[in-house]
Amino acid sequence: MRAEILCVGSELLLGQIIDTNAAYIAQRLARAGIDVHRKQTAGDNLERIVDCIRGALSRADILVITGGLGPTTDDLTRDAISLALDAPLEFDEAIAQHLRDWFAGRQITIVDSILRQAYVPRGAVALDNPAGTAPGLRAETPDKKLLFAVPGVPREMKVLLDNSIIPFLLERVEGKPQLIVSRLLRSFGIGESMIAEPLEDILTTATNPTAAPLIFGNTEVHLRLTAKAESEAAAKILLDELEATIRERVGEHIFGVDEQTLPAVLLNALEERGETLAVAESLTGGVANAFLSDVPGASKVLRGGVIAYSIDMKADILGVSRDLITEKGVVSAETAIAMAEGVRKISGATYGLSTTGEAGPQSQSGADVGTVFIGIADANGSRAVERHFSGDRDAIRRRASLAAIDILRRQLRE
Known about the structure:
five-stranded mixed sheet, alpha/beta, 15 helices
């Protein structure tokens, strides 16, 4: 079965609200074995919404609309469905009484506009909305196309989708549905083309499961693995086999799966080893510590950090030699190593990690903008790694912070 998604709301087109509904709907439909072929977004314009509905129903078996079911004059989804299906709106007294009772129970005076939500296109079925006032809608065309409409409020959308729409669709699927299950392999420190090259045969010829590379946030490359099977257990077997093959080729770059983040993976690895970490930052200005401390339970591993922007802070707090800074410069491997050793010493952590470099937009040290040195110190010694990043100041600071975390993660694997 083919599905399309229509998101209604001018605020989406204006960028005032980020559309998370479509992603959730697509994921739930995929889990039910229904392929989503297209997503559209329409503003609060009756003619355009009608056009989107008619176009979707000419191509797909299922249309899920989210948004535009509220009580205000710019909530036009009901009217658009009525026109698109040539089904006049009819007042449903049962819905109206439910709305009156709902507001009375909360000691709120109901206004006439609220009762707009009691109108239903002829032949459509109202779907109970336990999370709000606007009921959802289900309609079927003469040629057996299914249309569903749910509110745009994410909480209400999810309740209606999970409680009413997905169960209904599963009952309509003939035979045993083919579930679509996906898994993300997350990598850092390698470009999309570089990770794709050793996997070219898999990316171009695999049919079930499939694999596709995705850029994520300009810092990570994800590999999306997707399998179709009659059960989640069967899909898992297919995904496990493909993941094992991929890890044989590019496993050093893969740090996590699905929702695992790079900072969380590092901290979990350190916790398992009974080890701790402290971070000294110059150009990153606390970004690395922020990434790490965002992880719940980070205090079990993260001792703390020092933001040492000035030479005085590097010397007086971290114990970096002023002569070394004068001779080698602030942006240097030697200074990065001294910072890592210093933060390790004052914190008593197993590992000291440091960042120093030039974030721009103009160079203050003579080094090229984007030049970064990352220092690592532990009981076995110290070393520094040089990296070069492009982008604006914020991008360089973020990438340098994540690179420092990743370098230590990779060292733990050796």
